[in-house]
Amino acid sequence: MNKYLCWAGVLLFFGNKVIAQNSVSSPQLTELTIGSTLPNLTINNIINYNKSTLNSKDFHGRMLILDFWATWCSPCVAMMPKMDSIQKQFSNEIQILPVTYQSKAEVQRLMSKSARFKTVSLPFVTSDSIFGKLFPHKELPHYVWVNDSGMVIAITGFEQITADTIRMMLNKSKVSLKIKKDVLKNYDRETAVLFQNLGFTETDIKYQSLLTDFKEGLTPRMDIIRDNKGMVRKITMLNSWIKFLFAIAWSDDTRYFNGSKIVLEVADSTKVISHEVGDKFKEWLKDHSWTYELIVPEHLSANVYEIMRNDMLRFFPQYKAAIEKRVRRCLVLERTTAVDKIKSKGGETHISVEPFEAVLLNSKLGFLVSQLNHFLQTLKMPVIDGTGYGESVDLKLETNITNVESLRKALQKYDLDLIEKDYEIEVLVIKDNKQENKSTPPGKKGFK
What we know:
Layout: E1 42-43, E2 46-47, E3 54-55, E4 63-68, H1 74-90, E5 94-99, H2 104-113, E6 124-125, H3 131-134, E7 142-146, E8 152-156, H4 163-170, E9 208-213, E10 221-226, E11 232-240, H5 242-249, E12 262-265, H6 278-288, E13 290-295, H7 304-315, E14 319-335, E15 350-354, E16 357-363, H8 365-375, E17 383-385, E18 393-397, H9 404-412, E19 416-432, H10 434-439
Parallel strand pairs: 4-5, 12-19, 14-17
Antiparallel strand pairs: 1-3, 2-6, 4-7, 7-8, 9-13, 10-11, 11-13, 14-19, 15-16, 16-18
């Protein structure tokens, strides 16, 4: 925001602060624009002048600059000595007329206390309700230029108020001043900005962390959106439960905590995950699921999962989570010989894992392992890469990927096998936050 800009958030220009009419009688007032002629008006409530009343035709033969201001507008107040100096510099060629909707008492109170007004000899219009209707605006300071014939020739901000600009306008030089156009939408402080008619679109969002209650009709799902550099810019989880939300938050591009890699150490697991199916599961979701969305700018993309973790701990303080190493029963992918039958011949990378075929060309074994964790999730045992093989591989498995024995047979031609054994792995442990539960009053222990 420009330091010389006062917003209408505190400007009550059209509010109940208007005290009296400035004109004894006037036609129906309509907004004047550049090229309009200022009507004949009687202006009352003049202070700091030898008359309390003026008429708009008193300014004919001089250029009139209406200076709309308010006592609470610091830039307006700061401009007053400059405006007075310009008035004295151009003497009878111009008339600067500060105008405010505020009362005489409010203006005089400021003038008596502020050193900026000690030498200011400008006449001030107070309790205005006429000029404000002729020249509606939302931001202060606001300046209207009227030439010596009474025609509006410019409507500007403070930047154009200079001696050089005034001299050019007096000389009727071919100068085009930037028109000040106030655009300010009505704002309701009780309503979230995105649900008001303020003109925001999705492209305006630079950062957003959003949590909503369950919404009927949305199928639980998760989407991770990346930019053209592969960086995560948005994570969306619809009607998702705590175990699912925490699983994604504590995962990242190098690991994923599926169900078999999550340990629940909570007194009531039904608040975290449900094993119901069908209609019973849908009913459970209504009280135990949320929609979460995180949008980040490019410079925060590398920290997107860390941000989500912090959100989860803030949104659900009744739980805490940590990654720990535990010995678990696993399916471990191992090499059975030292003969290298999987080394890639190079070429383009291709990955395709379907229920009855898996093809990896010039890819890493980690991609196969991650897909096996999906296809074999009913076993409730994580699949682990125990090969220690870091080179790219070429594999083609024509088999039932969801059947361990069929899969093992297909792997044998590459001297690979899936061995069930105890193995130390990283797991996500979700626990009750006893400290939070102890210090939080009943009914306030996080959401739901």
